[in-house]
Amino acid sequence: MKSSLLISLFLCMSWSVFAAPSLTVVTELSPPNQTLINNQVTGVSTELVKAIFDKADLQADIELYPWARAFNMAQKKPNTFIYSIAKTPERLNQFEWIGEVATYHMGFVKLTSRKDIKISSNEQAKRYKIAVQRDDLAAKQLTERDYILVYTTDITKSYQLLISGKVDLIIDDKNYLTAMADQLAQDESRFTFVHAIDFLSINGYLAANKHTNPRYIMALKAAFNEVSKTQRYKEIMMLNKQH
Q: How far apart are CA 6 and CA 1, in angstroms?
């Protein structure tokens, strides 16, 4: 009898281990939304993503990659999630969309010392060399509009090209300049937000690979509905809207 109980207990424990979801969340470095502190992915959008998974009672590892690699992983691997990704018409049917975890108002950023760079319209920026992250929305939109672009793996590399004078402009949200300056150990006053780009005012989502288990999708969507009603969610989403 004791032997039967032990076998049953072992089987239950084994089922619990093997049935537990193995979920991966991928993202890129983008302070203050996604940043890396003591080898842990953190930031305000990360806080929302963790709250959504906690509310859904699901465990997931959050991993930081260059955007092109993160995007490729989320497209190809079931049970893989990505944030903060823009919901474009081209991407609409490529992912399952959980909910908004960021708001971006992107524009051109220059070195403050570059007094020669004056931009009052999107078209004027076409005379300058601009660093963009490969495969992100800004890269796609600017490529389609024939800007002069230099492609990088992540936002840090874009800033490094700007600092070194190898490009004239980068693309970022003016509310993120302080966080990026801290990340790069630079004085914030070195960077100036020059001009907002109207077609790059977007929302960033938590999304899932199209072949992710539907139970996880349903649980996370329900969890997002709860998290989105909290005061903390509203505070974080308002941070990026304060211009």
A: 9
